[in-house]
Amino acid sequence: MADMWTIERDDEGIAWVGLDAPGKSTNTLDRQVLDAFETVISGFEKNPPNGIVLYSKKEAGFIAGADIEMLGELEEEVLRGVLEDGKALLDRFEALPCASVAMIHGHCLGGGLEVALACDRRVARTDAEAGSPEVKLGLIPGLGASYRLPALLGAAEGMKLVLTGKTLDAETARSAGLFDEVVPERHLRTAARAAIRKGKRGKKAHKSFKEGALDTRPARALTARQMRKKTSEKLREEHYPAPFRMIDAFEEYGVSRDLLEEETDLFVDLARTKTSKNLRRVFMLREKMKHQAELPPGKLEIGHVHVIGAGEMGAEIAAWAALKGFEVSLTDIDRDVLAKAVQKAHRLFETEDDEIKSRGDLRPPRNRFIADLAGDGVKKADLVIDALPEKLELKSDVFGELEGRMKDTALIATNTSSLRLKDMAGALKKPGRLVGLHFFNPVRKMPLVEVVKAGRTTKRAMTQAAAFAVAIDKTAVSCADSPGFIVNRALTPYLLEAARMLEEGYKPELIDAAAERFGMAQGPVEVADHVGLDIALDVARHLKEAFPEQVGEIPQRICDLVEEGHFGVKSGRGFYTYEDGEPEKDDLDDDECDPESLDAMADRLILPLLNACAALIREEVVSDSDEIDAALIFGAGFAPFRGGPIAYARERGVKTVVSSLKALQKEHEAARFKPDDGWKSLTA
Questions:
Q1: Which of 488, 611, 625, 660 is the catalytic position?
Q2: SS3 39
């Protein structure tokens, strides 16, 4: 514990205090770290230095918030004690007679930001990022950010960070007033010294007229109404209570020490909610998948990526890989398609310009991205990604032709969403090099990549492919080579059931409202239009061949729309008509939105999805149910606050789910609702 915080006093009497939490790649706040910090503060209270610079010895960043696992293990009163002790500790640090500076690089999030806010000033390296993401875990700040952020930035801007959980890059944080200065690495210590020389930051003698006017109860009530309106546009209070409880507290107490005290009660209450427990579980799922897939530095053998097919998916995969630091060549037989892909890539690079600058890239992505009409990049590629149309004969022909030009160690990854890898492997002399890398559209936004193992795929191919997915900031979930893999296998019954309900006369808006009431990010009708009805139909047909009973008859409504060229968003019309990418929806009357009816509709949609997940477990497409939960949350927008489909089924009760499926099977006289035998393993 003594080695956790190190103190070095320089010839100016400045104490440089470095944190290096043992056994962790990233600094997080837990009881041990705070106890050791108390020892440091006690020493400074007895013998104050001329200034204090807090910094991290970890490459990953400053402090990445609280230890999430620790939160789940603490009893209520113990948690309350940790929070109260932590706040008292930061108050003592803030009260020290000498100036203090947080010298920040990388992540400065949650509790890490709260430590930095207790300093007089904050200087940051260009790669730093800061935020209060607790709301994304169903919580609010626990160590004073709900008070210190509005006090520093003003009520509106400070509360916005707390309520949205948004993370700011270094320059944005500086513009907002969160960072005092942003400099390159070589100037960081100099900037910290200069900030110390400015002395202790004095408290404002009086508030500005604007802040004073805002701190009246009527003004706060108006501001709170505006906050609730904006928050309600994105979240439902019954699903995500944390931001709404925070707004209530702000309205009651304003930016005051009373708010600081209320924060503890709110945090403890919210930590006990199902929403927070499930959101914390989702966070741990993402971390689990990352740690399973990532490799130690220097072990990733992929440097050059060659993408075949410059259509929508291929173009985005290539651009994203270049943005994330890889050498990329993109090829297509159509010169015009390739030219459009280059333009799209450059637009992405311009959009992400702040991120590129913050990472300090020596070579901009456009210099790593090559339009390769001749396809010569395959010769030096370590990974070749197939983004060709879903035609087995085409892919097999291309694989057979390019293998002879590839390096012996290079891997071939296919982005197929419906074809079996085993059917493609026959075209290769080294079938062990073939792996599935199934991206989701749009690549720049969707966090999931399914990493698919065929029967002869080597362990090296799986390991390298999954590590590549992590290296481009995706969540990699591994699965076996089975029709639809994980997401499409589970999502297709959900989408098809929505189409059947449309044929029965249900309004599309009502179907979507039922799913959104359940907690889905977007209703199934709109999801199908975004996926593309042509793609959804193609996947459904493949799945029906493999699982005719579970998939059932494909609704004629989808077939007709596809035949007429109405594919959804990309054609301007699908189930909905679209204007500038937005669906034209009719308003629903209150009497149409009876909660009991909506819940019954949601059951009819969600239960077939859950049933497919049980089948995935029975067929051993995944190694454990966590992979299903992660895949459906990050790849299909399954309600995060429910913890994933299997977590939801367990919480609801597996026996209840099975009996509900049987009831639907009887009501609709449909075998597609027959409970899968996979449920038996979940009740064991």
A1: 488
A2: helix
Taking a C-beta distance cutoff of 8 angstroms, is the pair 259, 146 a contact? Answer: yes
- Its pTM stands at 0.91
Q: Is 488 designated active site?
A: yes
Enter the DSSP assignment of 586: P
Is residue 417 part of the annotated active site? The answer reads yes
Catalytic entry in 276, 417, 478, 482: 417
- Per-residue pLDDT of 94-128, as tens digits, reads 999 999 999 999 999 999 999 999 999 999 999 99
Q: Decide if 88 contacts 134 (C-beta within 8 A).
A: no
Q: Name the catalytic one among 107, 438, 542, 566.
A: 438
Per residue in 217-239, pLDDT tens?
A: 888 899 999 999 999 999 999 99
Amino acid at site 49 = P
Q: Which of 52, 151, 159 is nearest to 95 (CA)?
A: 52
Q: How, if at all, do strands 61-64 and 129-131 pair? A: unpaired
Token pair 């029965």 is found at 504
CA proximity to 70, closest of 24, 122, 30: 30
- State the Cα–Cα distance between residues 395 and 409, nearest whole angstrom: 20
Query: Helix 625-636 and helix 274-293: axis angle, to 10°?
Result: 100
Q: How many whole angstroms separate alpha carbon 451 and alpha carbon 460?
A: 13
Is 669 catalytic? The answer is no
Our answer to whether residue 450 is catalytic in this structure is: yes
Q: How many other C-beta atoms can be found within 10 angstroms of the C-beta atom of residue 455?
A: 12
